[in-house]
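Field reference: sequence -> structure
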Amino acid sequence: MNDPTDNPPPWRLLLATDMTARCDRPLDRAKQLALEWRADLTVLVVQEGPSTPEEVSAWLDGGNTGHAFAPAARAELAEEFAGTGLLPALQVLDGDVTDGILGAAATFTDALVVIGASTHAPVQEIILGSTAARLAQALAHPLLVVRQRTRGSYGRILVANDFSAASRRALDTAIRLFPGRPVTLVHVLEERADAAPVLPADAMREVQEKSERFLERCPLALAERGRIRIAAGHGLVTEALTRHVVEERIGLVVLGVHRQSAVARVFIGSKSEDLMQQLPCDVLLVRALEGSDDGGDDG
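Structure field:
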């Protein structure tokens, strides 16, 4: 990570969408990133069944429902990207959404996968929760979950730090994808919800020292280290990070995802999944590399 040009952003983005109005936000973000990075964009639509009269008719006739959907989708994308110099590729698949996304992503050596949040339920929530959780565990590529409207490039970025290999890869990814942006590296000391509002000075010093040692193990250039600010929070992880997001007007939170067995996910859950569903901004999930030490390192 000595020079950002040595580690360029992904050369392809894969946007998983159903091309409805509720997916406008991830589409806008994917377009913004593709133009910023000069990357190719593939729009993936995975259909689990026919949803329009034309698709129902095609399905009843034993045809591929994608054939009825694709022409209208291509025309819509051409209109959406007119004048940008970018025309995304369209891929329409039938079957399970998660399997379709994983299969399409596996064909790319270097990519960012983009999905979105929705208001399908009575209260605003990510309806792709289970899909995103599976993707975060199985994808080799970073996964961007878009919640907010796109108002230009991401500004301030927050990287959650538990001193693990997953956090190191999250920081590396944030530095690589968004050169020049200020990064807040936050470690949260988990305490009760009714913990004192001010973190004791000795605890803050300990977090600072551990964070400095963590950064020493990251191959950062001097300019990159200069834009990283160390911060600490305490209390419940989700609430502490949310405070940082709101107070510092963070546009993107980057989370390292620890590999877990299915049994572990059932019984102890996943902080990354909880944060993905509750943080008020976009979230980038970065899975730890195979064979890396994912245990938190206290330095």
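Note: The two ends are 21 Å apart (CA to CA).
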